[in-house]
């Protein structure tokens, strides 16, 4: 953050911090903070710090500040790692105990806040940002070839991978200890273990969920700075805004829209209607291709490793404009993974029906016909064809392979062609199989949701929101990811989340009286932009530069011809290759900033 910085060190440990002031704006809350027998640097917010502070004060603890940071210090001294399950919030912190010569790194339950570490030559380094970690390790290093393959598998790098060899992300719900016995990494939170039994009464469970969500929203309104809400017009953010209005006071809402783009991408009219219904003080932000082009440098500057979710661009613009008015914004992130909002979950319901069709008919007639259809994101019809092709390609597979197929960017064959001679990464199918097994449930929808929370939520959605908001010194809080809400949702059967008519059944039933019926009736829209249209238009020069064969040959990492074929397919509308192309654009933008021109000699 831009509001302060500081450093602390002794003969064994050095800590540094830059601050965004949200709770206790005084210098008494500056970091690194020393007291209560330890020193801490911390990123995030503890929403129940007031209750924890009161409990500690009743035990005789005295505080020098009003900050949640000091509550972490005092709480650790009182409860040790028993503090972590007591915390309601998002956090990553490093705590040094000088007397015991012990360092503790801890990360929140679902990975809202980032934390990376590396061990080199008897030295442990850690940071919230890979660029900072590179500096601590002596400068940029080579690329991990397995991580590069994962990037073009998923468009992002899942936990615990990073693009640098030897640098790892501390997984969500884990802590690391460095002491006399060396480094140990242990899990302190496991959703499968915390999920309660399935409720016997649906209506009672939904009422409890509703009350718990309202509590989560109320907790996230605590701040010493202005607070607003991202509003898309969809169910998730509309429910957050509705709950905020019930808590009292004026609610400021913010929406981004795309001028000149097909109606498929436009959310402003829907958001405007919700804002009018709730009576929020509403701000609309317009983005066109030129504005996107002008914002690209800010987007890529805010990313510490290659990241190719193109919705980072509108997220950056939304965060930048929102920050002009408030310092904290609530958002609906997490609801899709927790309550089954994505279309692929509905596809899971229909997969059984599709597999009931004789294989000879599926493979001999339906799939060839679907494969011949043009596809793209430029119109609803082309987008339906794209989704239909993905469905028919994967519907006949096993659950884990089907889920992997719906998450994949490139097939293994395409990866082999793009990355010749590269070391293979773990198979996505194997990763998802393990994550589904770890969910500890026989419910196929809940197993799918659990795997997506561990993979896409932590590696993609939360990364996008955190990096793009913090690049603009805006703190984003997500009440759907309050662990009490998530645990209640995890206990619900899949039938209360996804059905043939759509997803988020539990939310639609629990909150039916809070929004107009048309909000719940609107089809699911992703927070997307017409990136394919732009890459062959206003962003064509940037795209061609990223896939320039001479550049690719010089780097020695990629096949020099395949990305050019992607571009031709996109321009001719033979195939929608926009996500693969954007992944290359994002990688090259990162390479220019954090490693100059990469060559085969520099690749691991």
What report would you give on this structure?
With 604 residues, the chain is of the alpha+beta class. Helices cover 46% and strands 15% of the residues. The chain contains 26 helices and 18 strands. The chain has a six-stranded antiparallel β-sheet, covered by helices on one side. The chain is globular and about 75 Å long. 49% of the residues are buried.
Shape: globular
Count of separate DSSP helical elements: 26
Question: Major beta sheet, specifics?
Answer: 6 strands, antiparallel
**Broad structural category:** alpha+beta
Distance between the termini: 33 Å
Task: For the largest sheet, list the strands in their spatial order.
Answer: 3-4-5-6-10-11
Low-confidence stretches: 599-604
What portion of the residues fall into strands of 2 or more residues? 15-25%
Radius of gyration: 24 Å
Count of DSSP strands: 18
Helical fraction: 40-55%
- Overall pLDDT level: 91
Strand and helix layout:
Elements: E1 4-9, E2 14-19, E3 33-35, E4 38-46, H1 49-58, H2 68-79, E5 89-97, E6 102-107, E7 116-120, E8 123-127, H3 130-136, H4 145-154, E9 167-169, E10 174-179, E11 182-187, H5 191-194, H6 202-219, E12 227-230, H7 235-247, E13 252-258, H8 268-278, E14 281-287, H9 289-301, H10 312-323, E15 328-330, H11 335-339, H12 343-355, H13 359-371, H14 380-394, H15 399-407, H16 412-418, H17 428-438, H18 444-470, E16 475-477, H19 483-491, E17 498-499, E18 502-503, H20 505-510, H21 517-521, H22 531-535, H23 540-546, H24 549-555, H25 562-572, H26 578-593
Parallel strand pairs: 12-13, 12-15, 13-14, 15-16
Antiparallel strand pairs: 1-2, 3-4, 4-5, 5-6, 6-10, 7-8, 7-9, 10-11, 17-18
